[in-house]
Amino acid sequence: MANADAAKKAAGVRAVDFIENGMKVGLGTGSTAYWSIMEIGARVKQGLQVSAIATSIQSEELAREQHIPLITFSQFDYLDVDIDGADEVDGQLQLIKGGGGALLREKIIASASRRFVVVADEHKFVPQLGAFPLPVEVTPFGWEYTFRQLTAMSGRPKLRQKDGKTFITDNGNYIADCSFGAIKNPRSLEALLNAIPGVVENGLFVDRAHTLVLGYADGTTKVMNKI
Ligand SMILES: O=C[C@H](O)[C@H](O)[C@H](O)COP(=O)(O)O
After folding, report:
1. Active-site pick, 60, 88, 106, 137
2. What is the interface pTM, i.e. ipTM, of the complex?
């Protein structure tokens, strides 16, 4: 296993220790959350009882393969724990997410969770957010106008492509990958972006994470809690 994968696996597996019997759980998206879903599946086979909701179609399919019982929003008021990855995380546990395009469902599920545990390899931990392009989910209707608004904010938006086509999110929207440079005030940028009518959501997760599990290439982990 490559070093980065070992670090992701270590974080993803360790985070599952926060799940107790009977809990309602949010399942994240991406190559780190993958390991959490696999570990939850393994523990379900050993008798752990959980019910879960996924942050993407991809993770939902993986959960089904792992025989993890799934629930819908009509079946719960809140989730006990959400375990999800990040593209960048700073010392205050503020995040950039959405590298896989799942940010909207991820933010709804993080918001519905009493405890949001972020899993990441050591390279995701940064002194300041902003080197990773900030994903912004926009409606296809009027996207060119919305992009002009993002450009006016110095966001330098790029329409995300995949396999030579425009990338479409699970919600039928586009992604603008933006470069704002170093993000000094994530809270205000998150709010300013969401004030643009064609913006559905953006990948800044401010004051949402409670716990960070960082994984290292040697298989060790470090747990940090929001102060
Ligand atoms: O949209 C994708 C999510 O926000 C992922 O959790 C994030 O991109 C991190 O993914 P990975 O663990 O694969 O680096």
Report:
1. 106
2. 0.98
